[in-house]
Structure formats: structure tokens, C-alpha cells
Amino acid sequence: ITAVVSADTFERPIYAGNAIATVQSSDATKVITVRTTGFDAAAATGGSAAVENAAGVADSGKSSFVGREVTKSERPELTAAKIIVSGGRALGSAEKFTEVMAPLADKLNAGLGASRAAVDAGYAPNDWQVGQTG
């Protein structure tokens, strides 16, 4: 939210911040995220909340670390690549995806990405997914 209109009415950005919607919730408990720049900073003094130390809890033994697998690649990581080559479902198969996209990415020294549809179809692994849903 960017503003509180009343106890149950708020303003929030929609359409990638191009419009502001006024929304109302009648729920007893409201879970909201706050755009911090939409509100004045809290006072540095005068708070009355109690500070309590909490002791750490011992391991319950219900979970354990099994291992870690790190993917090694000659290509740059997607998060750090200056160039990303991305393919989609139109390539038709995992073999065609690799046949077309890999040489191009190698030639450009680019990261290799895939659309959600290509990942869902099994053409590429999940960590290659790019775009609004990736």
C-alpha cells in the first residue's frame, strides 16, 4: 500500500504503478505490504515497545542437510549476464531448443534462457526461466 484512507481502506498501485486503486478489506486480520516511501519516517525516540531477548531453540532432528548441487556452465549466469538469448515453445522440442539456442548463446557469450512455456514443456531446466513469471 502507499496510503491508509481509513482502518479498512487503502491505496495501492496497479498496472505497474501507472494507476492507483483504492481497495477495502473487511477481514479482521489484514496482511499488507507497505511501500516505505509512501509514508513519513517513524520518530527516532518515544517508542514504548518492550524489548525481550529470545533464547535459541535446539535442533529438533526433523530435518537435515543432505547436500548441494551446483550447476557448472561455460556460459555466464543469467543473473550476471550482459546478454541473454532466450527461446520458447515455438522451438518444438528440447533437442531443437539445444540445437538452435546453444550455438547462438555460445557465439555471443550470452546466458541461455527459456520462456515459462519452454520450461514447462521440458525443453530447458527451471533455472533458465526468464520473463515476468521467471
Low-confidence stretches: none
Amount of beta strand: 15-25%
Biggest β-sheet description: 3 strands, antiparallel
Q: Order of strands across the widest beta sheet? A: 1-2-3
**What is the helix fraction of residues, given as a range?**
10-25%
Secondary structure tally, helices: 2
Q: State the secondary-structure class.
A: alpha+beta
Distance between the termini: 24 Å
Q: What coarse outline follows from CA principal-axis ratios?
A: extended
| Overall pLDDT | 88
> Radius of gyration, rounded?
24 Å
Spell out the helices and strands N to C: EEEEHEH
Strand count: 5
Short description:
By secondary structure, the chain is an alpha+beta fold.
Describe the fold and architecture.
The protein has helices at 94-108, 116-120; strands at 3-6, 9-14, 19-24, 84-87, 111-114. It is an alpha+beta fold and 134 residues long. Among the domains are: 3-38, no CATH class; 84-128, no CATH class. The protein has a three-stranded antiparallel sheet, with no helix packed on it. It has a two-stranded parallel ribbon with strand order 4-5. The longest helix is centred in the C-terminal third of the chain and has 15 residues, at 94-108. The mean pLDDT is 88.
